[in-house]
Amino acid sequence: MKITLILLGSKMNKLIFTFVLIFVIQGVNAQTDSLILNNDNIIVGELKDMDRGVLTIETDYSDSDFKIEWEKIKRIRTETNYLITLSDGRRFNGNIATLDSTLISIYSEAGTETVNRDDIVFLKSVDSGFWDQLNASIDLGYSHTKANNLNQFSIRSGIGYLAERWSADANYNNIISTQDDVEKIKRLDADLTFRYYLPKDWYILGQLTWLSNTEQAIKLRTVTNLGLGKYLIHTNQTYWGVQAGGSFNNETYSTEAADRQSAEAFFGTELNMYDIGDFSLLTNLVAYPSLTESGRWRVDYSLDTKYDLPLDFYIKIGFTLNFDNQPVEGASDTDYVLQTSFGWEL
């Protein structure tokens, strides 16, 4: 059971707000979370999560969840247990309550920790079910031109799951273009990424990536990465991290070229910016110097910008580039794709 309460009137005494809030919570004997906003409005309901500087709370009287900027919350108290992540990488499992306008206490099995409000960068209910831990998005595109009977289909999709100490993400992108008297053009890239989080914003990285494209004559490239990463900046506006490790690259080609296998190192960086209104930006760069093929190195780069629309729809522009300084004979050293799409996310 959850309840909702909103009281308006910024001139009312804070003690009255607090008294009413405690009375309602105790009276219903239910597990509820409560907020007092900067304008002294009170909201009581079910706090679902806080990510990227935006808190989501579910209320009984509204069909849509409230989304409130974290910095606009004066006081907060939760009865639900949450996975709590701080900007320095520490993680807790417990509930929170504000002490004043800047300090928040975290109550967990390890004891009580008092932190600055801005140090909390992520909240996720650990009492929620499987679907609440899941996020997903899908973009679809199709175009047809009468000239040469040109058809193009594209799909960009992703799904992720977050647990207390680990996360898993999968992405699948595919483009197929056909027209009369021209060979079919295909491009597919996909990845499966696992992260196990360590103290102080370090994490262990395991990743599988797949690539197939016509431009570089790659029938299938499978890369296995194992390494270590760290977030250097992790705030409610931006995160920036680096990663490094070793990988194994196995390639087959659509031409008569022989298959190739090579051991590689990898070095990467990722930047995610999301406190820029309804826009967000995610960019990733990974370099692969070969350890077994003299002088060979590869680069994978991606850039995604998204503009949020109502009802969880969005418009996205994505750019992906793959470079190999030693491609097989007859193939290009570079392949890239620019996509504009309309999508929806869970």
Descriptive report:
The longest helix is centred in the first third of the chain and has 15 residues, at 14-28. A hairpin with a 4-residue loop joins strand 1 and strand 2 (42-51). By secondary structure, the chain is mostly beta strands. The protein has a 12-stranded antiparallel β-barrel. Strands 1, 2, 3, 4, 5, 6, 7, 8, 9 and 10 form a 10-stranded antiparallel sheet that branches. The protein folds into 2 domains: 14-128, no CATH class; 132-345, monomeric porin ompg (Porin), CATH 2.40.160.40. 4% of the residues lie in helices and 65% in strands. The two termini are 24 Å apart.
Notable characteristics:
346 residues; 4% helix; 12-stranded antiparallel beta barrel; globular; 10-stranded antiparallel β-sheet; disordered N terminus; 22 strands; mainly beta; Porin; 65% strand; 2 domains; single chain; 1 helix
Give a nutshell description of this structure:
The protein is mainly beta and 346 residues long. Helices cover 4% and strands 65% of the residues.
Protein topology:
Layout: H1 14-28, E1 33-37, E2 42-51, E3 54-58, E4 66-69, E5 73-77, E6 82-86, E7 91-98, E8 103-108, E9 111-116, E10 120-125, E11 134-145, E12 150-162, E13 166-179, E14 182-197, E15 202-213, E16 218-234, E17 238-253, E18 260-276, E19 279-289, E20 297-308, E21 313-324, E22 334-345
Antiparallel strand pairs: 1-2, 1-5, 2-3, 2-10, 3-4, 6-7, 6-10, 7-8, 8-9, 11-12, 11-22, 12-13, 13-14, 14-15, 15-16, 16-17, 17-18, 18-19, 19-20, 20-21, 21-22
